[in-house]
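On clarity, I found the account of how folds are encoded harder to follow than it need be. What matters is that the chain and its backbone geometry are given together, residue for residue. For the editor and my fellow referees, an illustration may be useful. For illustration, here is how one protein appears when written out as sequence plus structure tokens:

___
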Amino acid sequence: MADLKTLLVLQEHDRSIDQLQYRHAHHPLRQEIALVNSQITKLEALTTDIGSARDEAARNESKRANEVAKFSEHAAVAEARLYSGDVTAPRELQALQADIEQLKRQVRGCEDLQLEAMEIREPLDTQLAEVTAARAEADVKAKTLSATLAAELATIDSEIDQEVNQRNSIASTVAPELLADYDRRRANGAGAARLVGVRCEGCHLTIPNVEAERIRKAPEGTAASCENCGCILVP
């Protein structure tokens, strides 16, 4: 009977190990970290999309600014020539004035396009700054949660090691055949459970009175099992 009762102690340690391993595998911070990482992935994609649109608008704005500078320079050169006195022929002066007006129209057109590009770029700058800040915040949160999780998992690992050591120490006192039987049964649920009256404490179902009585009167150390869950019954 001593070996059978030892199985109940062994069962408690195994149950504790199972619970600790479950806590390790399903720690709530894992889900929280997964959500934050999912958010980071979305922010990364958003950063790329907004950044691409912003860069395109900035390039267009720069292009138009260069065109404004180029046409303005050409207009200034033409105006300088117009008023230099070097051109005196009326037809040539007329053509030069027409060129200057054309260049100024091009300047105004490019300035309008530059303004449109700037109006597109500026809100994108704001959005990009907001998304970048959110990404940085999410990164910090992910690192903090990961560090917290690592510390808590280390604590659980330590508790598992303690339980395993105690479990192995107790298992070493059980007859090898009985221990092997217990381990085999435990693979499908509880390895051992106390028989209280006609109820198995493993599955909380009842067994026939005759069977319960037979188990109690069996020679010491005789292993009997629950016909419902299969665990070794300890009277």
